[in-house]
Amino acid sequence: MTATADTQAMNDTADLRSVRRANLRRLLFPRSIAVVGASKDPSKAGYHALNTLSGFKGELYAINPKESEINGVPCYPDIASLPGVVDLAILAVPAKACPGLVQAAADAGVGGTFIISGGFSETGEAGRQLQDELADICARTGTRLLGPNTSGFINPREHCSASFVHHCEEIGAGRVAVVAQSGGVNISLSFLLGALGEGVSLATGIGNAADVGVSDVLEQLADDPETHAIALHLEGVADGRDLLETLRRITPEKPVCAVVAGRADIGEFAQSHTGNLLGARDRTVAALRQAGVVVVDTLEELAQAAAILSTTRLPAMPDPGIGLITGQAGPGLLIVDGIKTAGLSVPELGPATEEALAQLLPPMTFVKNPVDTGRPGETFSDVVAAVSNDPAIDLLLIWGLVEPAVLDPAEVVKKASVPVVFGSLGMADDVAGQREGLAKQGIKLVTSPARLVLAARILAEDAAHQWRLAKRAPPAIGQPKPPLTANPDEDASKTLLADYGVAVPERRICANHEDALAAFGALGGPVVVKIVAEGVMHKTDVGGVHLGVKTAADMERALVAIDAIPIEVERQYLVEAMAPEGLEIIIGGTNDPSWGPVLLVGMGGVLAEALEDVTVRVGPIDQAEALDMLKGLHMAKLFAGFRGQPEADLETAARTIEALGKFLAEHPEVAEVEINPFRLYPEGGAALDALVVLKPQT
């Protein structure tokens, strides 16, 4: 290709990207819509798709060759017959008809289509071929496609409910956007937000994602001035690295919270402990958190978290101090217990603050943090001012049951100098009035102690995530090195990792007994003798590891025992210097087809799988992030010399985690790598076993 042709190709690609982005905007914020397959039959999706658009303020057309109008909407025989170009075509037709209609829409200059029907990749090979046709049309023409197999989207600002779900057109406009891979979850979250009095700015169900994916919608929302927070639902991620980078760009400006399905998922075909421990959900959750996303467990939590983040956000900081003021001691105890159980900071108040509170509150109240006022009184506003002005407090939680005679939430929060979340319970009308009064000041009201704890957790996590994003730029993925062509044995695996700075014991690979005895003499002292044979990955399981070999006679017995292992492939012997005792951890990783390098660390031996005490990150990462992984283990207290045990050198462990991330990034042909165990000492450490498994040849 000539330089001119090369430049033209790049321009064509850039132009197509620009067209695709503009057309997605037309699809999600349409000014004109045509419903293909519109019907007068209430049992048909085409009837409901047209009916939910009854409030649409733009141009609306129905397409059905058998009708001239449907419910007052003018009807045309096909897309080409429309009186003008439309932004969005909704296809309520069988799957087999969709490729031809999407092509017709593209030919007519339609911005995008939304396909209601299923019958595509979720049904098997024939459906996948239909979906591939749709994707090809979009890639060639620049038209966009939402779905197929989704309930569509809701854009209350445009009075556009591009869906067939009953009453979704009644969901009001709000500050929270929903992006859900499931159309049903999209609508469910929208109704949950509506029940909280929030509404949505845009709610999109991605469906099969033949064309429009999660990242595409997120990019649109990044520039949407009406969207102040994003609620994200994920089931599986085909292009995780792209999603990771998209979210890294968005979350510093707009908070994102997420629910990830698949808590029971495991690595079904994994050959290492690492692979078994790294479920698909673990990888997704780790990546989201690294990108600054707050992850919660349920849709109810997601709706509440997004609502809070849409108006309240702390500055970036590693460990926000949380203050609590309560008008009732019992709920206050539950709240502070939940906050501390979540590992959040409830700092002591300064002497000046406590002295001021003692002057404001009657005897028998509690003037530390949390502050129990007894029953709310006339000094409650001054208590709020005193606690929020304390230098240790970054977020203030207030709990008070509805008591109009003694407590007006909208008044008492006016003296707060830090972000506030208010919690209350009472009759529905009373609570609604409190919520409305607080909303005018940009303050959220939640309706249970548990939700107040949730508010503290998501606000603190968001602040900490953003602090880490600002402080740590992830290392760039290096250029691939010459690929490995065969699965290396343990000795070769250790040599590979040693080139990346991983400490390994002195060792010899031996072809026969004579060589093994010579290696024993050269290494001196106790040694370990292991089988080395193709296909034998977990040597202990077959009796292929002999520890503490001290004499030539011990060596001969170990070699004979290895010879007796019933395998039909050639075997060798690895003779390795016996390592001193220390604390054992597992360090491993995979090259995930979606996320790229993914790293795991846990306690060594069988403890990692038995207790599932592991932490996960998407790599490559730096040493600071690796240290966070180690400190995030439930058993991290063992590293500090628990009950007289020696301390463990975490710096060495962190460097080793960092090295494995770099190794995986530079060797994309590697499926799994594992060091189990990596033995840590007060100074230094060593990889006692190493496993590198390549991806299957295709």
List the helices and strands and how they pair.
Layout lengths: L2 H26 L3 E5 L8 H7 L7 E5 L5 E2 L2 E4 L11 E4 L6 H10 L4 E4 L9 H17 L2 E3 L6 E3 L4 E3 L10 E8 L2 H13 L4 E6 L8 H9 L6 E6 L5 H11 L5 E5 L12 H5 L2 H11 L3 E3 L2 H11 L12 E5 L2 H13 L9 H10 L10 E2 L7 H9 L6 E5 L9 H4 L7 E4 L4 H12 L4 E3 L2 H23 L18 H9 L8 E4 L2 H11 L3 E7 L11 E5 L2 H12 L7 E7 L5 E10 L3 E8 L3 H5 L2 E5 L4 H9 L18 H17 L3 E11 L4 E3 L2 E5 L4
Parallel strand pairs: 1-2, 1-5, 2-4, 5-6, 6-7, 10-11, 10-12, 12-13, 13-14, 15-16, 15-17, 17-18, 18-19
Antiparallel strand pairs: 3-4, 8-9, 8-11, 20-23, 21-22, 21-23, 24-25, 24-27, 25-26, 27-28, 27-29
Helix pairs in contact: 3-4, 5-10, 6-7, 7-9, 10-16, 11-16, 12-13, 18-19, 21-22
Protein architecture, described:
- This protein has 698 residues and is α/β, with parallel strands linked by helices.
- Among the domains are: 322-471, Succinyl-CoA synthetase domains (Rossmann fold), CATH 3.40.50; 506-577, Dna Ligase, domain 1, CATH 3.30.1490.20; 583-694, D-amino Acid Aminotransferase, Chain A, domain 1 (2-Layer Sandwich), CATH 3.30.470.
- Helix content is 36%, strand content 21%.
- It has a seven-stranded mixed β-sheet, sandwiched between helices. Strands 9-8-11-10-12-13-14 form a seven-stranded mixed β-sheet, with helices on both faces.
- Mean pLDDT is 92; it is low at 1-11 and 264-273.
Descriptive terms for the model:
698 residues; alpha/beta; Rossmann fold; Dna Ligase, domain 1; D-amino Acid Aminotransferase, Chain A, domain 1; seven-stranded mixed sheet; 22 helices; 29 strands
Q: What separation lies between the terminal Cα atoms?
A: 30 Å
Strand content: 15-25%
Name of the CATH homologous superfamily of the domain at 322-471: Succinyl-CoA synthetase domains
Write down the CATH topology of the domain at 322-471: Rossmann fold
Number of helices: 22
The total count of strands amounts to 29
Largest sheet: 7 strands, mixed
Approximate helicity band: 25-40%
- Overall CATH class of the domain at 322-471: Alpha Beta
